[in-house]
Fold each of these.
Amino acid sequence: MAKMTLEQKIQRALDIAEVQNAMSKHAYYHGVGYHLQELKDIWVKEDGGFAKTACFAQNHGYWVGIKRVKQYYGELNEKNRKTNLEMVSKLHPEVKNVKENEGVGSMIMHTLTTPIIEIAGDGKTAKGMWYSPGQVTEVGRDGKPMAMWMWEKYGADFVREDGKWKLWHIHMYSDFAVTPGKSWTDPAASGNPFSSGDTIERPPEMRPDIEKATYKEWSPTTVPQLTAMPEPYYTFSETFSYGP
Amino acid sequence: MALTLLRRTHFHVYRIFKVGWDDKWVDQFANIDSVGGVPIPDDLKPDGPATDDYPYRPDTVVQLVPVPPEPYETWDKTFSF
């Protein structure tokens, strides 16, 4: 890689901070279920040049294109917030079934640690990877809240769009989820009911566009996988993608 | 070159939940203060009531609090924590 000028090094440092800020915004928006707001603020534009190749991925597949990401990550979440409120309202009649109560009982924290962020030499794209220890609190089918510790890794690609760093691909690699106070090695207490759909109905049209086992949760018979880490690169064609 | 030191002037801790490691915060339906903690002497009690205080409860909606900082030019153009 060519030797960088002082100005280029300063720009690189600024870009790394801005990429981290964008990813941190994802964590805060996700934490309160404001997925549609997140999509509008920090994801690539619906009418932009990266819309068709945007991607949201979990252990079992990819949703491709910003419209599909919006359907799955945004609109399905909105629908679930409404459904959850209906259930909670039945259990707690004092919680009225009105719009401002949508999201009741839910709370998510996917913190971001151990970052590796690389900015492309051409300054057009960036890659990042994080550990994400956290918790997921959701409303179960019976309307009662469910609590889980959840540990994941994130891999994400960013593009500079209209002068700002925007999420292009995000891949959530789930390692384990466990009931508080239990061991994740206990099969009865572990497993990710949120991503497997035990608590949240996932209609057929919301299945991944590319169904593929991209990553395996921990199990006694699973060999740990090293998720690809960002390495210095000049242009995106020279590196790998966290998308499909 | 002049070096400007930035010092912390406001520090707001937003409590969310506090439970024993083997407890579920979703069972903590009652007042979060009932969980206990270090008693605060009278002369060190807060000067005013907590603001933006939204500890988790299963019957409430979590809020985007605090809101993420946005780029700003001078202090009078942004909000205070």
Note: Residues 7-39+51-81 of chain B form one domain.
Amino acid sequence: MCLPSLSTASADTFSVDEQKLYFGEAYFFASQGNYIDAITRRGMLYGPISAKLDPLHFQFGDSQFSAGDFELSYRMYQRAGRTFKAIAEGNANQLVRNEAAYRLARFYLQNGEPVNALKSIGKITGNVPKSIGEDLIFLRAQIYMANGKFSDAVSSLQELKASDNYKGFASYNLGVALIMSGQEKLGLDQLAITGEMNGADEVTLAIKDKANLALGYRLMDAKQPALARQYLDHVRLDGPFSNRALLGSGWAEVALGRFDSAISSWSALTKRNVSDSSVQESMLAVPYAYAQLNLPGKAAVLYGKALEAFDKESARLDASIKSVNEGKLLPALLSKKLKQDDSWIARIKSLPDAPETRYLLDMMAYKEFHESLKNFSDLQDLSKRLALWDGDLFAFEEIIGLRRKYYESVLPGIDKQFSAQDTKMKTRLQQRRNLDDKYGNRLADAYKRLKLVDNDIELMKKNHDSFINLRQSVTPTYQGHDEQIRQLTKRVRDSREKVNVLINRQGHLLEVMITNELNQRRKRLQENQSQAKLALVENYERAKKQSSAGGVK
Amino acid sequence: MVRILKSTAVVFLICIWTTVSAAEGTAARAVNDDQVNGLDEQVQDLKNDVLGISTEISRLEEKLLYPANTQVSIFLLVTRGEKFRLDAVKLKIDGKEIANYIYTSKEMEALQNGGVQRIYTGNIRTGEHALEVESFGKSSTNIDYEQNVNYPFTKEAGTKFIEINLAGPGFGNKGVTFRN
């Protein structure tokens, strides 16, 4: 049956208000860490970068950057880079192009491509959006430093001295850049200023600690232990750099010949977690200092205690390596307790102490491990989605089958009835035309009859159009989708195979990274154990001799 | 003992100039960089494929389950700058409950920052209908509130989008506005 067509809205056309809703929805998903749905929703609206939205449209910048930002957040670095590159080289206005070049430069730097980052940032000319003004200056400085252009970095960082947002970062990096550009004294002075900044927020406190730590070690290297000690003492005892600061303080005291003061610094450190290399070193350094103070007996006892602690730690490392090799790490990573929400990686701390996860938090300090773990988690999520879609596509096939069966049984009868109605309506229309031709508006009575016919015809036309609209919408609900569903099903199943392969490989890589790290720690521990054993024997012998000579200490 | 000092001495020249941990990459250096990068690229490629599938499936789902002529989609926003906490929203169309949603703090934050929630997509006949919106939460002064607003609307041929904008308590009925 051939039906006249009525105009229908294309599914691909959205008004500006509708675009805002879709865009807002994409942002809502992204805020929950649901990047697949965010990028999908955005993609349904805008499509590929070069399509649909006019580069001069006021929303172009936001909409295109949202794609790149979502992609970056979802660790699709290559795609994000291509997104920003396309905008930067496109025909959008200067502000948008400059912002894209900035984002591209940042992407290159984070991706370990400093030369490309420098090229990209070099393309920024003219005005930039106010929102990225300071970010751009800081990024430029970072790129200069990554490319060894420390003098240029100094100039950039000096522009940020008055910045509230970048004060600490700019100050610290300025100190480093000055030192690396050969202006040692100025650099050390700058680090000292950084170490005394005002601010009680965690970021500022961490930057101050880092500056004081760097200064302390640099001064130790320059054989100025007394001055070094002053700065190392400013590092917080409960901060992330405290272990290294305490260790450095002790060695500064040793350099000054003050072994008893060194012992005070290191004693606090020996009570901390023995898995830390600074703590292990302090456990050897304290008895060493006692030996220097001519107390070999005490030194021997402490070497013995160090050996005990090292043996325990070695056993823990062995247990962890064994547990990982037995395949217990990956199930622990997939445990429900860990996967409570999007910040699950931060919840690693809450895991019960088990051999396979004991050192997981330490491993998170390594960027490659961190990224690999996130990939592993993403792959698990992809696997679940693909399984769901496999089921959905099967359900769609069933729905279409049921609809086809139903409509193909009732539509012929309905179409037949419509055909009869259609004929009736056409007849009435013809009658009306005939009356109009014959009488026109000349006779009042005929005019009244025409009016009645008009009312009938209007009602019939309304029903006619309504039926056509509905009838036209029915067929697409069960026709024309079979091939698409077949192809989608194939793609989903191919992807499921790929994801299973990648999950195994990614999981294996994580296991290898952890066991390599633990083996390195065990090797370092073995070296410490050897030294402790040797020193224990030497000091024991010394103590015996001292005792024989008449003074046991 | 000098041997111990030398052998156990701290490496004073630890590289501390970078803004990341000095131990970065130790574990990964023992693993081939090409392995790590190669695998990462494959994961990114797979994500690309999955996103393509996701877009197609979403479009197909809309066509099959929510054809344009019967589709109604309801979006929820909160007025930016208004400091209230939205705990839950309940929707009814023609007296029948169609959505009952409880918000996490993350979702609330996303809404306050301009995010839009598609709270309901479904099918209804053309004609006159009544949407009822019940919202529950806490005001900026931590007082419980509950708002109930009705919105009559007409469903015609073509997809119907309804936008609900919540401003929170203190605005009376104007605290909930609608847009087609």
Note: Chain A touches chain B through 98 residues (CB under 8 Å).
